[in-house]
Amino acid sequence: MQIVQPLTAPVTPVDALRRIAFLLERSRAGTYRVEAFRNAAKVVATLSTEELRQRADQGTLKDLQGVGDSTAAVVKQAVGGTLPAYLESLQEKESAPLTRGGAELYASLVGDLHSHSEWSDGGSPIDEMVLTAVELGQEYLALTDHSPRLRIANGLSVERLIKQLKVVDAINDSLGDRFRLLKGIEVDILDEGELDQTPEMLGKLDVVTASVHSKLAMNAAPMTRRMVTAVLNPRVNVLGHCTGRLVTGGRGKRAQSSFDAKAVFDACIEGDTAVEINARPEREDPPDELITMALELGCLFTIDSDAHAPGQLDFKAYGCERAERLGVPAERIVTTWPVDRVLEWTSRGR
Fold it and tell me: Which of 2, 18, 42, 298 is most buried by a 10 A CB count?
């Protein structure tokens, strides 16, 4: 991956608005602020440069629905050929790497096996997630929207997932060899270790990330059986955010689930399932001691953003800092592998 280089003048109004939204998300700004710029970009994208210039001269940019004082100023300065002051200020404050450590490993990452779109509980269209991944220098991204029983996250039924796969095909057709959007899912691990999607549909996917989202306080013995059953399923490739903990953020804190970590990680090795290092700052999951255990046992890993918005795709830097600090070698991290090797790995046992 690469650090996004600051934009310089001249810049299109859409690019300026998109970059502001990206930098705000990356810095974990409030959703309302982010959406103001992203929604304005959608509106502005439908208009010609000449119409935008005329509106800027006439002072009618704010007559456009979804364009306010701040976004109108960005558009006016961009069409005038200067770098918008808001963007310039934000780039000075927020363009630095997110962490001090992990830079070498961050540069080695070429993919991400856990991301969400507005099809489930993400905040942006699939194409916006893809465009940002390309700008970050990724070579592939797995679209892993939620499975149907996670209703609070608008999980995908069989019918909706079929429709989404057609969208993914269309995006890949348009991109050629430049980038690969992988067909995936974050499938819920149910009470007895069953997966919350039909085997037929799981067989149509490139990547299956399996996570526990319910009954996180289950006793250790049944939780261990539940997780072991899931990671031994030949359809499963990645064990997502294995403890379910929350350490900070707007959702508050949540204690980690209790389970026999050695038994689960041994099963991951047997099932050729990677342990996800979930890079979301509110998760930091697994904890350091469990990453060290999985490393010593011989597990594979992924470093994933679990991004629910474009600016969060860069959260992988947090996971890289932890993995590098704990001594996880790049060759054991699936998301440093080229996409053909990843697909060869995920297809085993299916």
Answer: 18
